[in-house]
Amino acid sequence: MSIDLQAAANEYIGWLQLEANRSPNTVRAYDAELKKLIVFLHESGHTLQLADLRHEDLRAYQRLLATRLKSPASRARALVAVRSWLRWVAREGFIDRDLSNGITLPKLEQRLPKPIDSDELARLLAALPSGTPLEKRDKALVQFLISTGCRISESLALDRTDFPRTGNRLIVTGKGSKQRAVYLTADARAALEDYLATREDASMAMFINYDRSIADDRNRRLTSAGARFIVKRLRRQLGAWSFKSPHVARHTAATTLLEVTGGDVRLVQEVLGHANLNTLQGYTKIVDSRKQDAYRRYQQFLDEKKKTAG
After folding, report:
1. What is the per-residue pLDDT for 280?
2. Under 8 Å between Cβ of 180 and 174
Protein backbone atom coordinates (compact mmCIF):
# COMPACT_ATOMS: atom_id res chain seq x y z
CA MET A 1 0.00 0.00 0.00
CA SER A 2 1.56 3.26 -1.14
CA ILE A 3 0.73 6.28 0.99
CA ASP A 4 2.49 9.57 1.63
CA LEU A 5 3.61 10.62 5.08
CA GLN A 6 0.98 13.31 5.60
CA ALA A 7 -1.85 11.01 4.59
CA ALA A 8 -0.55 8.35 6.98
CA ALA A 9 -0.33 10.94 9.76
CA ASN A 10 -3.88 12.11 9.05
CA GLU A 11 -5.17 8.53 9.19
CA TYR A 12 -3.50 8.05 12.57
CA ILE A 13 -4.84 11.31 13.99
CA GLY A 14 -8.32 10.32 12.85
CA TRP A 15 -7.92 6.96 14.59
CA LEU A 16 -6.81 8.68 17.80
CA GLN A 17 -9.93 10.86 17.73
CA LEU A 18 -12.60 8.41 16.65
CA GLU A 19 -11.48 5.00 17.84
CA ALA A 20 -8.85 5.47 20.55
CA ASN A 21 -10.91 8.24 22.21
CA ARG A 22 -7.80 10.17 23.13
CA SER A 23 -8.26 13.60 24.69
CA PRO A 24 -8.36 16.67 22.39
CA ASN A 25 -5.12 17.93 23.97
CA THR A 26 -3.34 14.66 23.20
CA VAL A 27 -4.64 14.62 19.62
CA ARG A 28 -3.47 18.20 19.04
CA ALA A 29 -0.06 17.47 20.55
CA TYR A 30 0.50 14.32 18.48
CA ASP A 31 -0.67 16.07 15.32
CA ALA A 32 1.77 18.93 15.93
CA GLU A 33 4.70 16.56 16.55
CA LEU A 34 4.03 14.53 13.39
CA LYS A 35 3.84 17.71 11.34
CA LYS A 36 7.26 18.75 12.67
CA LEU A 37 8.69 15.38 11.65
CA ILE A 38 7.24 15.68 8.15
CA VAL A 39 8.59 19.21 7.72
CA PHE A 40 12.03 17.96 8.73
CA LEU A 41 11.87 15.07 6.25
CA HIS A 42 10.71 17.41 3.49
CA GLU A 43 13.52 19.85 4.17
CA SER A 44 15.97 16.95 4.20
CA GLY A 45 14.98 15.98 0.65
CA HIS A 46 12.85 12.97 1.59
CA THR A 47 10.40 11.69 -1.04
CA LEU A 48 7.57 12.02 1.52
CA GLN A 49 6.41 8.47 0.85
CA LEU A 50 5.92 6.38 3.98
CA ALA A 51 7.42 3.29 2.33
CA ASP A 52 10.70 5.16 1.83
CA LEU A 53 11.11 6.09 5.49
CA ARG A 54 14.31 4.66 6.98
CA HIS A 55 15.92 4.27 10.38
CA GLU A 56 18.58 6.75 9.22
CA ASP A 57 15.91 9.42 8.76
CA LEU A 58 14.59 8.85 12.26
CA ARG A 59 18.04 8.94 13.80
CA ALA A 60 18.71 12.23 12.04
CA TYR A 61 15.47 13.63 13.44
CA GLN A 62 16.40 12.51 16.94
CA ARG A 63 19.75 14.28 16.59
CA LEU A 64 17.91 17.44 15.53
CA LEU A 65 15.63 17.26 18.57
CA ALA A 66 18.65 16.79 20.83
CA THR A 67 20.05 20.11 19.62
CA ARG A 68 16.76 22.04 19.63
CA LEU A 69 15.13 20.69 22.78
CA LYS A 70 17.39 20.77 25.82
CA SER A 71 14.71 19.36 28.10
CA PRO A 72 14.64 15.53 28.08
CA ALA A 73 10.93 15.68 28.90
CA SER A 74 10.23 17.80 25.81
CA ARG A 75 12.20 15.41 23.60
CA ALA A 76 10.40 12.45 25.11
CA ARG A 77 6.98 13.98 24.38
CA ALA A 78 7.95 14.57 20.76
CA LEU A 79 9.37 11.08 20.29
CA VAL A 80 6.51 9.27 22.00
CA ALA A 81 4.16 10.71 19.38
CA VAL A 82 6.42 9.59 16.54
CA ARG A 83 6.95 6.13 18.03
CA SER A 84 3.23 5.58 18.59
CA TRP A 85 2.50 6.59 15.02
CA LEU A 86 5.16 4.24 13.62
CA ARG A 87 3.76 1.33 15.60
CA TRP A 88 0.29 2.07 14.33
CA VAL A 89 1.18 2.33 10.64
CA ALA A 90 3.02 -1.00 10.90
CA ARG A 91 0.12 -2.67 12.69
CA GLU A 92 -2.37 -1.34 10.13
CA GLY A 93 -0.26 -2.53 7.22
CA PHE A 94 0.63 0.87 5.78
CA ILE A 95 4.28 -0.20 5.93
CA ASP A 96 5.84 -3.66 5.98
CA ARG A 97 8.20 -3.06 8.90
CA ASP A 98 8.02 -1.55 12.38
CA LEU A 99 10.39 1.39 12.59
CA SER A 100 9.37 2.29 16.14
CA ASN A 101 12.25 0.25 17.58
CA GLY A 102 14.56 2.89 16.12
CA ILE A 103 13.13 5.54 18.46
CA THR A 104 15.12 5.90 21.68
CA LEU A 105 13.48 7.90 24.43
CA PRO A 106 15.71 9.97 26.72
CA LYS A 107 15.92 8.87 30.34
CA LEU A 108 13.86 11.12 32.54
CA GLU A 109 14.63 12.03 36.09
CA GLN A 110 11.59 11.11 38.15
CA ARG A 111 10.21 14.22 39.75
CA LEU A 112 8.01 13.74 42.75
CA PRO A 113 4.78 15.71 42.73
CA LYS A 114 4.72 18.62 45.16
CA PRO A 115 1.46 18.71 47.11
CA ILE A 116 0.46 21.55 49.40
CA ASP A 117 1.65 21.01 52.96
CA SER A 118 -1.25 20.03 55.23
CA ASP A 119 -0.80 23.05 57.52
CA GLU A 120 -0.58 25.44 54.58
CA LEU A 121 -3.61 23.78 52.99
CA ALA A 122 -5.67 24.30 56.15
CA ARG A 123 -4.67 27.98 56.24
CA LEU A 124 -5.46 28.40 52.54
CA LEU A 125 -8.94 26.89 52.77
CA ALA A 126 -9.75 28.88 55.91
CA ALA A 127 -8.60 32.16 54.34
CA LEU A 128 -10.45 31.92 51.01
CA PRO A 129 -12.62 35.07 50.70
CA SER A 130 -16.26 34.66 49.70
CA GLY A 131 -17.85 38.10 49.81
CA THR A 132 -18.50 38.76 46.12
CA PRO A 133 -19.86 36.40 43.44
CA LEU A 134 -16.37 36.25 41.91
CA GLU A 135 -14.81 35.33 45.26
CA LYS A 136 -17.50 32.72 45.82
CA ARG A 137 -16.62 31.19 42.44
CA ASP A 138 -12.92 31.12 43.28
CA LYS A 139 -13.58 29.50 46.64
CA ALA A 140 -15.91 26.91 45.08
CA LEU A 141 -13.34 26.06 42.40
CA VAL A 142 -10.49 25.59 44.89
CA GLN A 143 -12.64 23.55 47.26
CA PHE A 144 -13.83 21.40 44.35
CA LEU A 145 -10.30 20.71 43.11
CA ILE A 146 -8.99 19.85 46.58
CA SER A 147 -12.02 17.69 47.35
CA THR A 148 -12.16 15.64 44.17
CA GLY A 149 -8.62 15.63 42.78
CA CYS A 150 -10.10 16.29 39.33
CA ARG A 151 -8.03 17.53 36.44
CA ILE A 152 -8.76 21.16 35.66
CA SER A 153 -10.12 20.19 32.23
CA GLU A 154 -12.56 17.75 33.87
CA SER A 155 -13.68 20.38 36.36
CA LEU A 156 -14.27 23.13 33.82
CA ALA A 157 -16.25 20.80 31.54
CA LEU A 158 -18.93 20.37 34.22
CA ASP A 159 -22.35 21.98 33.87
CA ARG A 160 -24.56 23.32 36.62
CA THR A 161 -26.87 20.37 36.11
CA ASP A 162 -24.02 18.05 37.14
CA PHE A 163 -24.17 19.37 40.69
CA PRO A 164 -26.01 16.79 42.83
CA ARG A 165 -29.27 17.96 44.38
CA THR A 166 -28.61 15.68 47.31
CA GLY A 167 -25.55 13.82 48.53
CA ASN A 168 -21.97 14.43 47.56
CA ARG A 169 -21.47 12.24 44.48
CA LEU A 170 -21.14 13.54 40.93
CA ILE A 171 -19.87 12.18 37.63
CA VAL A 172 -16.95 13.64 35.68
CA THR A 173 -15.69 12.72 32.24
CA GLY A 174 -11.95 12.12 32.08
CA LYS A 175 -9.40 11.10 29.49
CA GLY A 176 -10.68 8.89 26.71
CA SER A 177 -14.24 10.00 27.52
CA LYS A 178 -14.22 7.66 30.52
CA GLN A 179 -16.64 8.60 33.26
CA ARG A 180 -16.06 8.14 36.97
CA ALA A 181 -17.64 9.16 40.24
CA VAL A 182 -15.99 11.73 42.49
CA TYR A 183 -17.12 12.97 45.88
CA LEU A 184 -17.45 16.38 47.49
CA THR A 185 -16.42 17.18 51.02
CA ALA A 186 -19.03 19.01 53.10
CA ASP A 187 -17.02 22.24 52.70
CA ALA A 188 -16.79 21.81 48.93
CA ARG A 189 -20.52 21.19 48.61
CA ALA A 190 -21.32 24.21 50.78
CA ALA A 191 -18.97 26.44 48.74
CA LEU A 192 -20.54 25.29 45.46
CA GLU A 193 -24.07 25.83 46.77
CA ASP A 194 -23.15 29.31 47.96
CA TYR A 195 -21.59 30.18 44.60
CA LEU A 196 -24.34 28.72 42.40
CA ALA A 197 -27.01 30.55 44.43
CA THR A 198 -25.52 33.87 43.25
CA ARG A 199 -25.70 33.00 39.56
CA GLU A 200 -28.10 35.10 37.49
CA ASP A 201 -26.70 34.23 34.06
CA ALA A 202 -28.01 31.66 31.58
CA SER A 203 -24.72 29.80 31.08
CA MET A 204 -24.83 26.03 31.52
CA ALA A 205 -21.23 25.98 32.77
CA MET A 206 -20.62 25.28 36.44
CA PHE A 207 -17.62 27.62 36.55
CA ILE A 208 -17.93 30.83 34.55
CA ASN A 209 -15.86 33.85 33.58
CA TYR A 210 -17.14 37.10 35.12
CA ASP A 211 -15.57 39.28 32.42
CA ARG A 212 -18.16 41.98 31.68
CA SER A 213 -17.02 42.21 28.07
CA ILE A 214 -18.49 38.76 27.38
CA ALA A 215 -22.02 39.43 26.16
CA ASP A 216 -23.01 35.91 25.14
CA ASP A 217 -23.62 33.59 28.10
CA ARG A 218 -22.67 30.62 25.92
CA ASN A 219 -19.09 31.89 25.95
CA ARG A 220 -18.83 32.33 29.72
CA ARG A 221 -17.36 28.92 30.56
CA LEU A 222 -14.13 29.43 32.50
CA THR A 223 -11.01 28.36 30.60
CA SER A 224 -7.91 26.56 31.87
CA ALA A 225 -5.95 29.80 31.44
CA GLY A 226 -8.55 31.58 33.54
CA ALA A 227 -8.31 28.95 36.26
CA ARG A 228 -4.51 29.25 36.33
CA PHE A 229 -4.86 33.02 36.70
CA ILE A 230 -7.25 32.54 39.65
CA VAL A 231 -4.80 30.23 41.41
CA LYS A 232 -1.86 32.58 40.89
CA ARG A 233 -3.88 35.51 42.21
CA LEU A 234 -4.98 33.59 45.31
CA ARG A 235 -1.43 32.34 45.82
CA ARG A 236 -0.13 35.91 46.02
CA GLN A 237 -3.13 37.25 47.91
CA LEU A 238 -3.11 34.54 50.61
CA GLY A 239 0.59 33.70 50.66
CA ALA A 240 -0.12 30.08 49.66
CA TRP A 241 3.21 29.69 47.90
CA SER A 242 2.92 25.93 47.36
CA PHE A 243 -0.30 26.41 45.38
CA LYS A 244 1.47 27.06 42.09
CA SER A 245 -1.18 25.73 39.69
CA PRO A 246 -4.58 23.99 39.62
CA HIS A 247 -2.78 20.67 39.13
CA VAL A 248 -1.13 21.05 42.54
CA ALA A 249 -4.59 20.56 44.03
CA ARG A 250 -4.75 17.17 42.28
CA HIS A 251 -1.37 16.19 43.74
CA THR A 252 -2.59 17.29 47.15
CA ALA A 253 -5.81 15.29 46.91
CA ALA A 254 -3.94 12.16 45.79
CA THR A 255 -1.35 12.34 48.57
CA THR A 256 -3.96 13.06 51.24
CA LEU A 257 -6.18 10.20 50.05
CA LEU A 258 -3.26 7.78 50.19
CA GLU A 259 -2.48 8.85 53.73
CA VAL A 260 -6.02 8.65 55.11
CA THR A 261 -6.76 5.31 53.38
CA GLY A 262 -3.59 3.68 54.66
CA GLY A 263 -2.04 3.49 51.20
CA ASP A 264 -5.02 2.13 49.23
CA VAL A 265 -3.47 2.74 45.82
CA ARG A 266 -6.28 1.16 43.81
CA LEU A 267 -8.90 3.33 45.47
CA VAL A 268 -6.90 6.46 44.72
CA GLN A 269 -6.38 5.25 41.15
CA GLU A 270 -10.15 4.99 40.73
CA VAL A 271 -10.84 8.39 42.28
CA LEU A 272 -8.24 10.18 40.15
CA GLY A 273 -9.01 8.30 36.95
CA HIS A 274 -5.45 7.09 36.32
CA ALA A 275 -5.09 4.40 33.67
CA ASN A 276 -2.39 2.45 35.53
CA LEU A 277 -0.91 2.17 38.97
CA ASN A 278 2.58 3.27 37.90
CA THR A 279 1.33 6.86 37.71
CA LEU A 280 0.79 6.81 41.47
CA GLN A 281 4.34 5.80 42.39
CA GLY A 282 5.35 9.40 43.04
CA TYR A 283 2.54 9.83 45.53
CA THR A 284 3.36 6.62 47.38
CA LYS A 285 6.98 7.78 47.72
CA ILE A 286 5.81 11.03 49.31
CA VAL A 287 3.59 9.15 51.76
CA ASP A 288 6.42 6.74 52.60
CA SER A 289 8.74 9.67 53.22
CA ARG A 290 6.21 11.26 55.55
CA LYS A 291 5.78 7.98 57.42
CA GLN A 292 9.55 7.65 57.83
CA ASP A 293 9.74 11.22 59.11
CA ALA A 294 6.93 10.50 61.58
CA TYR A 295 8.77 7.45 62.88
CA ARG A 296 11.98 9.47 63.25
CA ARG A 297 10.13 12.05 65.32
CA TYR A 298 8.50 9.24 67.31
CA GLN A 299 11.92 7.74 68.03
CA GLN A 300 13.22 11.14 69.11
CA PHE A 301 10.24 11.48 71.43
CA LEU A 302 10.99 8.07 72.99
CA ASP A 303 14.67 8.94 73.37
CA GLU A 304 13.78 12.15 75.19
CA LYS A 305 11.47 10.21 77.50
CA LYS A 306 14.28 7.78 78.27
CA LYS A 307 16.58 10.63 79.21
CA THR A 308 13.94 12.17 81.44
CA ALA A 309 13.23 8.82 83.11
CA GLY A 310 16.92 8.22 83.65
Report:
1. 67
2. yes
For residues 103 and 78, what is the distance between their CA atoms, to the nearest angstrom? 11
Distance separating alpha carbons of residues 141 and 154, to the nearest angstrom = 12
What's the start-to-end Cα distance of the chain, in Å? 86
Q: What is the pLDDT of residue 153?
A: 93
Q: Rounded CA gap, 85 and 79, in Å?
A: 10
Interval 255-292: pLDDT, tens: 888 787 777 777 777 777 876 656 666 666 666 665 56
Could you tell me if 225 and 176 are in contact, meaning their C-beta atoms sit under 8 angstroms apart?
Answer: no
Residue 245 is classified by DSSP as: S
Answer whether 0.85 is exceeded by the pTM. no
CB 153: neighbour CB atoms within 10 A? 18
Is 256:115 a contact under the CB 8 Å cutoff?
A: yes
pLDDT of residue 177: 82
**Active centre residues (catalytic):** 151, 175, 247, 250, 274, 283
Share of the chain above pLDDT 90, in %: 52
What structural domains does the chain harbor? 5-102 (1.10.150.130), 118-292 (1.10.443.10)
- The number of angstroms, rounded, from the C-alpha of 79 to the middle of its chain's C-alpha atoms is 20
Q: Are residues 240 and 142 in contact, defined by beta-carbon separation less than 8 angstroms? A: no
